[in-house]
Specification:
alpha+beta, 3-stranded antiparallel β-sheet, 5 helices, 13% strand
Length: 97
């Protein structure tokens, strides 16, 4: 999905709620990528609800480093109405899971 550089999809009409959700998710991810939080929370856990489409639910429980290049492709929201989330987790929790 193409975006405008600030994380907002280009060429897709979004409800105000979806647009706000995307803006908030982009802001949170930028905050988590700053050096301090990145040291403490170096991994991301993909959390998808069972009510999401099968391709979203299939990613649920996936863990990868915060700087994994494919997060640019797979980071929520994955489309209008998507309520999936990336959860920052510690290295200890990532190992336990």
């Amino acid at each position: 999905m193409k975006n405008d550089g600030a994380g907002m999809p280009v060429g897709i009409r979004l409800s105000k709620e979806d647009a706000d959700f995307i803006r908030q998710a982009v802001k949170r991810e930028k905050e988590l990528r700053t050096p301090g939080p990145k040291i403490l929370i170096p991994y991301r856990l993909f959390h998808g609800l069972s009510s999401e489409p099968p391709n979203h639910h299939a990613l649920s429980g996936g863990i990868a480093p915060a700087d994994w290049p494919l997060w640019d492709l797979y980071a929520p929201p994955l489309g209008p109405g998507c309520s999936c989330a990336l959860i920052g987790i510690s290295a200890t929790r990532a190992r336990r899971m």
